[in-house]
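User: quick one - fold this with zinc ion bound?
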Amino acid sequence: MPPINRRTLLAGSALTALAGSHDPAGAAAAPAEKQSPGIYRYKIGTFELTALYDGIWYRPITDKFIRNAPFAEVENALAQAFMPADKLTTPFTTLIVNTGKKLILIDTGTGGQITPSAGALRDNLVAAGINPKAVDLIVISHFHPDHINGIKDKNNGLLFANAEIAVPAPEWNFWMDDTNLQAAPADLKLTFLNQRRIFSDIVRNVRRFDPGTEVAPGILSIEAPGHTPGHTVFAVHSGDQSLMVLGDTAQHPAVFARHPDWQAAFDIDGDAAVATRKRLFDRAAADRMLVTGYHFPFPACGHLIKTATGYEHVAAEWQPKL
Ligand SMILES: [Zn+2]
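Assistant: Sure. Structure tokens for the protein plus zinc ion:
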């Protein structure tokens, strides 16, 4: 049989037949004109996990975006990943863990307060049949606005009215320190002020945990500093299965897994961010562990393999059954 290329395909009988076909009902279907809900479910042992899409931000970048690589190399990496040249493609995926005893949300999305193309978490919770009031515990990886703003709506109303909020103690200690706020450059001051908006009137609901401890049965926190001083990741264990919840250890893997040495302008300590990334990615690759990354393409779970120059993310295959 000759190989099928575009020319033979166009000349082939299949397409000719198609061109002559018509809708037997004779009616045009109305276009949906909106995306379907962003929900993906999977299991770790007996825990049921639900990845919920909050949206995407095409974050503008400049030639200062990567501190330790020429911008031409960055542009080349973006082009190879089919991404726009002057923006970082930044999707957001939150994770619900139903342990059977507790309903736990890990990171909370943007709350619709960062870009018009994100803020879908609330609708996707509804579509997934999850009542925000039923969430018992919110676990936070770090205090950047795309991870904490979903705690509240634009008018500072609580979205998860009954949830306790567990935050890494080193993250709290860094950002809630007014001396650090005063010393920060102007753009970072906005980040400090946003954290005070989110947390100052709900301190009684906030539990500070030390990385290395369990935040809930089956969810172990692991220190992962660099992106922020108290950035923390989580290992979810149930039965003989595990998942590493990587937070912002790397943002989009097509950029930062392939180039693990790159230090982004938004990493507070670039050297530490790179060391953390390699430590966790090496472990995940060696153990062939399932991982999820907050800024990985939806549904954000898959595996990491080590390559000659970095790592490659292999997306999980959609499973029709849990
Ligand atoms: Zn983030």
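One thing worth noting: The first strand starts at residue 39 and ends at 44.
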